Amino acid sequence: MDLRHLRAFVAVAEEGTFTKAARRLHSSQPPLTKQVQQLEREVGTTLFVRHRDGVELTPDGRMLLERAQAALTAFREFEDCTKSVGARTQPLCVGIGWGLWEAVERVRSHHAKKFPDARIAAEDLCTERRSTQERRIDVAVVRRPVDDTLYESEPLFQEDFVALLADTHPLASRTSVRLADLAAVPLLMYDRGLGPGVYDKTLALFEAAGIRPRVVNGQPPPYAQAAMMLVASGEGYYVGIASPFTQTHRASGVAVIPIDEPDARLDVRVAWRKGETSRAIREFVRSARAVFPARVQTARSGAA
Asked: Where in the sequence is the domain holding 108, given as residue range(s)?
């Protein structure tokens, strides 16, 4: 699933026909139809009912439309931000882990006041990247693990682990849950490469609690629309993360409940290459420290 699929889905939903949507996107109808079909396969449900004179959203399609529109709006806003912060020939490339845009935007906003001519570009760290893309990243806001042999990093703040359950589940009304409470519910797990820090810490929490979850492997990651569909449909639950600086998993049909276990937290860190001499990169790291000073200091004291 990528932006092409979301743009196709939203255009067809808003225009009411594939013909009008293709005209709006300056595309032909066959590839647009294929993109919508690919999205339907990805989420595992039909999004449109086809009629002779157009299309109509299914209930599942209506549920996903608002989220797709919000995702496209957020992307356009970020594009506008990166275009408005200056005109440097070579932009500073910031890698962003899933859901960490709010934290990065706080740093970017602070940084832009100090360096109004600085230009910043974003690199999504939620997708598989080639080595050339990896080298292009100057500084990143990420979760562990961070390769300490190649990168320096500092904690910015901590995220709490949460359970994502159908809002109709008996546990959905709880203010918090223990992992033992979830033992009978299937745990939906994704490929480790999509979020190794959250993945490894999730398994560590279960091991520390002495719980053997009913794992269902090979599922979409917890930040995907397809994952929300699985949860809302009662197929199981995910373990995710949330903080005041993290876009949460909140969606219609999904309850987000804090997990009450020791050390059910994860550091979010700013990372940059070892031996970095670029002033632009060092100044961005300083901006990150300035935005999260108390949290960095507390984390350093705890580590010491």
From this structure: 90-304
